[in-house]
Design goal:
Length: 365
């Protein structure tokens, strides 16, 4: 998920676990720890990593639950030595640190990008694909809870009117906690709704694909940007891939599918390349292969079908060039082909909004 979401989620769970008198410190600590796993991108930049390494190792070791648990224990041990607050309430602060770190990859696993939760165990990234990487309906309740909890955090008891001040402090602490709990509850319920929505879409897709003989074909479903009402389903086929969309607001009956050709023989020819193998593992095999002519030669471009709308995908790679003998030769570097600019994204978002409410909308131009 986006950085703001991880910040407010980390702050929320840490502040709920820590003592009320430490709430502001916990909000700050949780916000910082909630961003720590994503700092792996800084390392990739400093190391000058190629794009395949950067993309496929992001959400790798830094998002591993065992690694983060060890990090949490190490930070807690340091806190026992150098933090008065942690020494005053060691067990609540241990829980706060663990939750702030571990909720980050667990939430990321609900997106389509994928998260290597059990690294170094050699398993493909977990991609629940029930929420888009940015979804205001998930983030806003958490953000409101954090703002109110910060504002209503207990203050030092004043010397004057101690009874009234203590009462105010207790009420403020309770109000802040209730807002944090409410925000976390609403966001969690929304996440639960996204799972139910995905199950409904998958059931409709499976029923429609049975008529095409593709009920058991590899497929995935994912929400379109910023919502969980319009979904996109991609189904792999021997000669390409089918794309269908489903609005939970307007669509009824069988889904309609569009076949997009893919150069599967060329993909099979380059599948042994190390970079291509890594991409296929990372994407669970959901890639499209198209030829592009560059300087009179055919180049093979692979698209990660999980992120983007046809034909504009966020991650596209030139992986090989065809020689005079018809054989595919690896390119010196696996290069990213940039996605369409702001105008293209605006067209996609307009289409998404229209398609949620209308069953028949022309394809994105």
């Amino acid at each position: 998920m986006d950085s703001l979401t991880q910040i407010v989620l980390g702050g929320s769970v840490a502040a709920l676990a820590a003592p009320a008198r430490h709430r502001r410190a916990a909000l700050v600590t949780g916000a910082v720890l909630g961003t720590v796993p994503d700092l792996d991108v800084l390392w990739f930049g400093l190391a000058g990593s190629d794009v395949v390494t950067t993309v496929t190792w992001h959400r790798g070791p830094s998002h591993s639950l065992p690694v983060l648990l060890l990090l949490a224990l190490g930070l807690w041990w340091l806190g026992l030595r150098y933090s008065v607050a942690i020494r005053a309430a060691p067990r609540p602060w241990l829980l706060a640190i663990v939750l702030a770190l571990l909720t980050h990859p667990l939430l990321d696993a609900f997106t389509v990008y994928g998260t290597q939760l059990l690294w170094p165990w050699p398993m493909p990234p977990v991609m629940g694909s029930t929420v888009f990487i940015i979804d205001p309906l998930y983030t806003v309740p958490l953000l409101l809870g954090v703002i109110v909890a910060w504002w209503r955090a207990p203050r030092e008891v004043l010397a004057v009117a101690p009874t009234r001040t203590a009462t105010y402090g207790w009420q403020a602490a309770t109000a802040g906690r209730n807002w944090l709990l409410g925000g976390l509850l609403l966001s969690t319920l929304y996440l639960g709704w996204s799972v139910v929505a995905k199950l409904r879409v998958d059931a409709a897709a499976k029923h429609s694909l049975a008529a095409l003989g593709l009920a058991q074909a590899p497929r995935f479903s994912t929400p379109t940007p910023f919502n969980t009402l319009l979904w996109r389903v991609v189904v792999m086929a021997p000669d390409g891939y089918y794309i269908g969309d489903r609005s939970l607001v307007t669509d009824r009956g069988p889904m309609r599918w569009t076949l997009v050709p893919s150069d599967t023989p060329a993909l099979a020819a380059v599948a042994g390349q190390v970079g291509v193998q890594r991409l296929l593992w990372f994407t669970h095999g959901f890639v499209g292969a198209q030829r592009q002519t560059v300087d009179g030669r055919s180049e093979l471009v692979l698209s990660d079908l999980r992120m983007g709308l046809e034909p504009d995908y966020s991650f596209r790679y030139r992986v090989a060039r065809q020689g005079d003998d018809g054989q595919w030769a690896p390119l010196p570097l696996v290069l990213r082909v940039e996605e369409e600019g702001g105008d293209g994204r605006a067209r996609h978002l307009r289409w998404v909004w229209q398609r949620i409410w209308q069953a028949e909308v022309p394809a994105v131009p």
